[in-house]
């Protein structure tokens, strides 16, 4: 919050929170789907990624 | 403006995901493929023993199983899925590499959005100057600290119940992230102590561990893999943080 003339903080506080919470929700969904979701198709597609990111899977 | 901020995070994540795929192909995937050769020697196990099924090294390797594994076009890592899931296979019939690339892009965008989301909600910008630090904290929270309890595992490694491990892992990531925030961005002594407690708590509780730690996969491979996985993810997070900072400085600011 030290800066005032740069944009992602020049978003108003409520816009910043909306953007932040949206980002957290979408990001959490994507990471869950690629990393943790218990679906065989997702698991097999993401197999090497899951292992190398150290996600606990199978 | 909100959309632009989110798009900037996604683009940074996609760039880091492409980078991660290259790093994985060089350092990590060869080890996974190598480990699957050992995993493939195991006979089909009892689906009833959920969580431990493909990890017993006590059972003898049947010659028939070996022959089948040799003839089958399905790699062992995919084959063992079919023991407890009726459907499997790679999305859209892609190759293994493109599946990994897709998963890395999705994961990269996901982690990038999470990082941006934290940055936006707590009101600390990610810039080119502090991007590497943001990335390093992400790596600590998502990879290094959870790995103290649950090291990155190769296919065929013994492991405790999946649900327990995922719960412990997710909670550790959340607590570590909160702890790092208190430790790094709060000035008060109380906050710093609380941060350390949050970081230490899941390790004091202890990660779920397998009962039987014997495995067909050589330990040396496991050690190489753990180091390779942590090193490539560290590189991924630093690229992610720096690219996010760069995009924030140049693109989002200009708008």
UniProtKB/TrEMBL annotation, chain A:
Keywords: Membrane, Transmembrane, Transmembrane helix. The chain crosses the membrane at residues 17-42. It holds the Pfam family CbtB. InterPro entries: CbtB_put. This is Cobalt transporter subunit CbtB. It comes from Sinorhizobium sojae CCBAU 05684.
TrEMBL record, chain B:
It comes from Sinorhizobium sojae CCBAU 05684. The keyword Transmembrane helix applies. The chain crosses the membrane at residues 101-121, 128-148, 168-184, 189-205, 225-247. The keyword Transmembrane helix applies. It comes from the Bacteria. InterPro entries: CbtA_put (IPR012666). Keywords: Membrane, Transmembrane, Transmembrane helix. It holds the Pfam family CbtA. This is Putative cobalt transporter CbtA.
């Amino acid at each position: 919050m030290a800066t005032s003339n740069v944009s992602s903080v020049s978003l108003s506080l409520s816009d910043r929170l909306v953007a932040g919470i949206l980002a957290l929700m979408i990001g959490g969904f994507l990471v869950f789907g690629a990393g943790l979701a218990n679906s065989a198709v997702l698991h097999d597609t993401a197999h090497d990624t899951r292992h190398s990111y150290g996600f606990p899977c199978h | 403006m909100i959309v632009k901020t989110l798009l900037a995070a996604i683009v940074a994540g996609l760039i880091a995901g492409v980078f991660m795929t290259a790093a994985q192909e060089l350092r990590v995937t060869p080890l996974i493929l190598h480990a699957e050769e050992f995993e493939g020697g195991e006979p089909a196990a009892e689906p009833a023993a959920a969580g431990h099924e493909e990890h017993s090294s006590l059972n003898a390797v049947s010659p028939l199983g070996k022959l089948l594994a040799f003839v089958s076009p399905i790699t062992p890592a995919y084959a063992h899925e079919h023991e407890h899931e009726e459907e499997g296979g790679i999305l859209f019939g892609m190759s293994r590499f493109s599946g990994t690339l897709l998963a890395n892009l999705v994961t990269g965008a996901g982690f990038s959005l999470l990082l941006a989301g934290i940055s936006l909600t707590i009101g600390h910008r990610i810039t080119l100057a502090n991007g590497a630090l943001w990335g390093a904290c992400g790596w600590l929270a998502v990879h290094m600290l959870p790995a103290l309890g649950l090291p990155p595992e190769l296919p065929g490694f013994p492991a405790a119940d999946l649900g327990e491990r995922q719960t412990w892992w997710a909670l550790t990531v959340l607590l570590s992230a909160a702890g790092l925030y208190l430790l790094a961005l709060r000035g008060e002594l109380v906050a710093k102590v609380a941060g350390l407690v949050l970081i230490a708590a899941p390790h004091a509780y202890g990660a779920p561990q397998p009962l039987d730690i014997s495995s067909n996969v050589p330990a040396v491979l496991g050690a190489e893999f753990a180091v390779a996985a942590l090193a490539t993810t560290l590189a991924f997070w630093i690229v992610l943080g720096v690219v996010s900072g760069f995009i924030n400085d140049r693109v989002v600011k200009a708008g």
